[in-house]
Amino acid sequence: MSEDLYQQAIVALARDRSRAGTLEHAEASVLRENPLCGDRVSLTGRFASDGTLSEIRHKTRGCLLCEAGAALVAANAQGLDAARAEQKGTEIRAYLAGGSNEAPWHSAAAFAPVREKKSRHDCVILAFDALAGLFHTRP
């Protein structure tokens, strides 16, 4: 896939507003910030009786990569339990670091160009950290 196609895929992810906003009557919420650049991801969620995430929304203020990462997480996190949410964070870190060619979700392969830009990894990872944190804030 060419750099241009990757860029188009990242832009498309960032523009996905299907799960943007906040959930009314959310059972859990979390805010993660990157103090170095000001990126901010807020997640709200509801959970099924088995502890899996049944609904999620994100509010994101940040760069294109941060917005794309949050939209990706929100689009794919339903049905995850706490352990799988943590695993997705581990997988994106390994993927971005080049330790794995397997992206956590198929559409996460759009972040391939970011692999060479270590200083931008945190922009993508912030939403994955928020996802893991969301499970720790539920009642």
Main attributes of the structure:
139 residues, alpha+beta, Sufe protein. Chain: A, three-stranded antiparallel beta sheet, 42% helix, 17% strand, globular
What number of domains? 1
SS-based class:
alpha+beta
Uncertain residue ranges? none
Q: Provide the succession of SSEs.
A: HEEEHHH
Number of helices: 4
* CATH fold node name: Sufe protein. Chain: A
Molecular shape: globular
Write down the Rg.
14 Å
> Which CATH architecture?
Alpha-Beta Complex
Largest sheet: 3 strands, antiparallel
Percent in strands:
15-25%
Kindly report how far apart the N and C termini lie: 43 Å
Which range best describes the helical content: under 10%, 10-25%, 25-40%, 40-55%, 55-70% or over 70%? 40-55%
In total, how many beta strands? Answer: 3
Q: Report the CATH C-level class.
A: Alpha Beta
Mean pLDDT: 94
Q: What's the arrangement of strands in the largest beta sheet?
A: 1-2-3
